[in-house]
Amino acid sequence: MASPSPLPDDLDLSPEALIAARPQLKRHAMDGLLLDGVPLNAIADELGTPVWVYSANTMRTRLARLTAALAGLNCHIHYAVKANDHLATLRLMHQGGAGADVVSGGELQRARAAGIPASHIVFSGVGKTADEIRLALACGIFQLNVESAEELATISAIASGMGRTANIVLRINPDVDAGTHAKITTGRADNKFGVPYAEAASLYAHAATLPGISPQGLALHIGSQILSMAPYRAAFARAGELIRALRAAGHSVTRMDCGGGIGIGYADPVEASPEAFAGAIRHAFGHMDLQLMTEPGRWLVGPAGLLLASVVLTKADGRFTVLDAAMNDLVRPAMYDAFHAIVPVGPNNQTALHPTDLVGPVCETGDTFAKSRPMPRLADGARVAILDAGAYGAVMSSTYNARALAPIAWVDGGRFTTIRARKPIESLWADEIMPDLPA
Ligand SMILES: *Cc1c(COP(=O)(O)O)cnc(C)c1O
After folding, report:
1. Does residue 225 belong to any structural domain of this protein?
2. Which residues contact 433 (CB under 8 A, 6 or more apart)?
3. Integer Cα distance of 340 and 345 in angstroms
4. Same structural domain for residues 265 and 344?
5. pLDDT, tens digit, 9 for 90 and up, residues 187-226
6. Mutate to test the pocket of ligand 1, among 63, 295, 299, 336 (most ligand atoms within 8 A of CB)
7. Which residues are catalytic?
8. Nearest atom (ligand 1) to Cα of 295
9. pTM, whole model, 2 decimals?
């Protein structure tokens, strides 16, 4: 599928419907929008806008629900660090019993800095460098998810040189269409990820002969924001077949990493159910005596974050509402045509709604958060919350247009704390070195 699915026709995009669908949000008659009981206006007053706000309770509740869904399956959760890599998020996941799935040496070090031991970390990615592989082996990583024959050879050489054995799983490309946006589908034969299905059995056999390599099983990850269980079932069935064939040929297969990608309800309250996801895992692998793993990112943290912004001005008689947040903060709408619910933060008992395009100030037409969204008339300085921005939000920010990274607030136990301060603008060029320029 080349583009995201269209919004359902009967979708109610009015702010009050969007708020009602999200249990962490309430509108207070005096204080305006509350996140877990904390007024968002109080956070914006103290930290300014744009500012990210994370709900710890939402992350905890979602991790607990997924853990409960997987109970009895011998299935470990490795949180995909790239979705939201703040140390507080990583520590919360660790406290909730999850390990980490990392895709770079930087993420490996970040996860360990947050207190996640290397023995609870798996390392995925198509282009691990020799330095990253060395780092992973030196700190005793639980598993390397190998994506090619070439990478397998490199890991073998490095591990045997270090006198170590690398526990690996082979990431297979099951060639299924996850039915998600083209930029976030990863399990098709024409995507760069994994080992072609037809070659996986012989590569697994080859891995067993290599020095420094201990093949443990298989991995797959077919994409992100997957709302239907059908592609999971198809991919898991192919992996199950391969495991049976490998075992029949005398190979030991003890682990299956089922990947992540579970989708959330950006546009409406219907999201992929973790119970259904667990059911698909149970159906395919439940009786195969495997140590199972899953690597969700978005599903755990997406609904837990929002981006607070202020209206700079409205123009063309309200047709455009220009915010002080931009695509450099939240790039998902520009990059993936992603939908984000947007709601006013004020007490707001206005009932008349008018369609408006909510845009950022950056000099790109793609800097558009939403088109023709029904909103009450917003005065200059009024605040809005861009919802479901806890995953692939702050982690993908840039400083394009010399805009500093936005600060981050953490809401927990009815209070908020600052977990990333706003930096002085000079910090943007503090590490630049002026060369000698002939006058
Ligand atoms: C990105 C990624 C994930 C997490 O994907 P989500 O859609 O956030 O759940 C899991 N595994 C791998 C290998 C990834 O690259």
Report:
1. yes
2. none
3. 15
4. no
5. 787 888 899 999 999 999 999 999 999 999 999 999 999 9
6. 295
7. 363
8. 10
9. 0.96
